[in-house]
Amino acid sequence: MLNNYQGKLKANTQELRSRGLLIRDLASCSTQLEALSYIEKLNLNQYQPFNLVMLTNQTQLMWLYDGLISKLDARPAEHSIFSSGHKHAEDIIKQRHSYMQQFNDLSETELIAIHKSHEPMLGSTSNEKSEDKQEKDLSYAFCMHREDACSQSMTKVVLREKDVRLDYWQGQPCQSEEKPTVSVSLLLI
Asked: Which residues on neighbouring strands pair with residue 62, listed in sequence order?
């Protein structure tokens, strides 16, 4: 679940349901078919815009809710999915996609390092590293730092054949410990 800040946000006066509760509801589904049915019947009026991704051993799907449509349609999940609440979100997302194009298959360790990094720097290219930049603007970085906001945590989900592992690091990723704050493994049946 990623917040879709670029969607049409609903007024705070409306009675809205937390998008996080949708994840809890979907986690209680015992089959992929049950989860797909639940998503199909969702009352979208009670949610702010979001991007939802479902990964299984058989399929990788995503749904984009922009705050306007009344029904979600599944489509194949993109390789990299980004979100930003910044006023220049479109540029940030484009730069993050551009930065990631320089990599092929990344290990879990390499992905974590990227998400703890201050790359990409504002206006940098994939070949230009932070130390080459004179001005340290971290508003576009994976571990983002701005006057009005900053990255608050990092979560990694690994889907394996017989289990799912979730690792969560509390706090800014660039300052978090090597070991996760919380680690949970669930056996798949």
From this structure: 53, 75
Averaged pLDDT for residues 1-8:
89
Find how far residue 76's CA is from the centre of its chain: 16
Q: Give the residue, 96 or 187, on which the prediction is more confident.
A: 96
Helix axes 19-27, 32-40, angle to 10 degrees: 150
pLDDT greater at residue 171 or residue 135: 171
Q: What is the secondary structure of 85-115 as a DSSP string?
A: -STTHHHHHHHHHHHHTT-SS--HHHHHHHH
How far is the first Cα of the chain from the last one, in angstroms, to the nearest whole number? 23
* Positive or negative: CA dihedral 102, 105, 110, 115: positive
pLDDT at residue 61 greater than cutoff 60: yes
DSSP β-bridge partners for residue 115: none
Q: How far is residue 73's CA from residue 95's CA, in Å, rounded to a whole number?
A: 27
Spell 94-109 as b/e; 16+ CB within 10 A means b: ebbeebbeeeeeeeee
Confidence band (pLDDT; 50, 70, 90) for 135?
low
pLDDT of residue 39: 96
